[in-house]
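Limitations

Structures in this collection are predictions, not experimental determinations, and the ligand pose is part of the prediction. Treat each record accordingly. The example that follows, with magnesium ion as the small molecule, is included so readers can see exactly what is and is not provided: the inputs are given verbatim, and the output is the predicted complex.
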Amino acid sequence: MPDFRKTARRLLLSVVFPALAACTAPERGVWQQQLFAFGTLIDISLYDVDETRARAAVQAVDEMYQRQHHDWHAWQQGQLTDLNNAISANRSLATDLSIVTLIRLGQKFEAGSDGLFNPAIGGLLDLWGFQQDDGPQGPPPSAASIQEWLDSAPSSLQLDIDGQMVSSRNPAVDLDLGGFAKGYSVGKAVDLLEQRGIHNLVVNAGGDLCVRGKHGSRPWRIGIRNPLGPGILASIELQGSICAFTSGNYERYFDYQGRRYHHILDPRTGYPASGSASVTVLAEDPALADAAATALFVAGPGQWPGIAAAMHIRDVLLIDEQGNAWITPELEQRIHFEREPRQLTIVSPVSPGGQLH
Ligand code: ADP
Ligand code: MG
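Predicted complex:
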């Protein structure tokens, strides 16, 4: 079966809970439409908007998504693969402005996460088979090939940008924007809808979402998927201008000889990050929320508070591989657990110096 259908079906499962929880369709006042881009179902809910305006607005969002899907794809030919090919041939290339913007953002996230978030990780993702339309099958790459990647030490901070001209000091840099492009584009979709006078809405890309305003007289209610089994783990009410992004080990993976290998890789080891099952981050900026969820997933239960502080993230929920939960104090006040985690620990983001963020 073509991978996108498998992806669509899997994501439908993860989307349905937030979507149902957010706006049990068909519900009075809410107009809902689904799009498909970035291998994900994107569910748009608009409150109290007439149908003509809603349709035109969602059409505009769809056109934007299809353009981005083409330009930013990490392995189908487009602007990003052209740039990666130029980098590996030690050539400079003038690229699209949106890619320049994303590279600058990615550099900020890489620096802020102490390299745990690394947008130059494409070569390693490819080694693991995660850069292909078909689901990866294994076997995992050899230890020698992983070591070779580690030795080549690619980093987005090795890129130089002059206007739209991009060059790299390291030909092993291979950009993969999968860790934050979805967040960035959800933000752009929200901007587009707001420019069209729509102020109460949810844009939900596979469980990663931003809300604006309210659902009539009450907040939007969203669900956070249980990473260790079916159903939702917790729900939370959101209103105003806020986004919730989750990175989970269940999104894309393969099983090989009794072991599971997922798609969030630890740039320090070259292997799938261990320790976390999912990380949810709330933030106003969706690209930051997306990147931080990935970075804190890599940091794991022991190290996430320092990285959260460095990335200026206040609201985090981390579930580890055993089902224990770590949560920041303000989020703990707002969250409703549908099922009790094995153990719940409340932790503040804290910088390595020990000062509270
Ligand atoms: P999802 O919402 O699908 O769980 P995430 O936001 O967690 O996605 O991002 C996972 C994607 O990020 C991977 O598919 C890959 O493209 C990219 N990625 C994996 N590991 C890293 C990393 N350490 N730093 C930056 N990007 C990564
Ligand atoms: Mg992410």
